[in-house]
Design goal:
With about 90 residues, the chain is an alpha+beta fold. It is built from two helices and two strands; from the N terminus they run ααββ. The chain has a domain at about 30-80.
Length: about 90
């Protein structure tokens, strides 16, 4: 009865160790990036998306894939160093 669980645990641990895990640094602005095209995303649809976000008053837009920055865009005078008031998040 224990064998199936042992096999399942071994496979799960093996698959985790085979992945190249990445965690961004706690401090600093040096996150790794990944090209959206290399992820198989429809990059020809990014400009209309970014235009829609800008037209609707978005200040910043970021998409992470496995901890890496795939898309990072700021609008107007807003930059990665700009402060923003958060009343709640979540």
């Amino acid at each position: 009865m224990l064998r199936p669980y042992t096999l399942l645990g071994t496979l799960a641990i093996g698959s985790l160790s085979a992945q190249n895990l990445y965690f961004p640094p706690t401090f600093g602005n040096t996150w790794e990036t990944v090209d959206p095209a290399s992820l198989g995303w429809c990059t020809d649809q990014l400009p209309p998306l970014l235009q829609l976000l800008e037209d609707n008053g978005t200040k910043a837009f970021i998409v992470l894939k496995d901890g890496r920055i795939a898309i990072e865009q700021y609008f107007g005078t807003f930059t990665q160093d700009s402060s923003w008031y958060w009343a709640s998040a979540g």
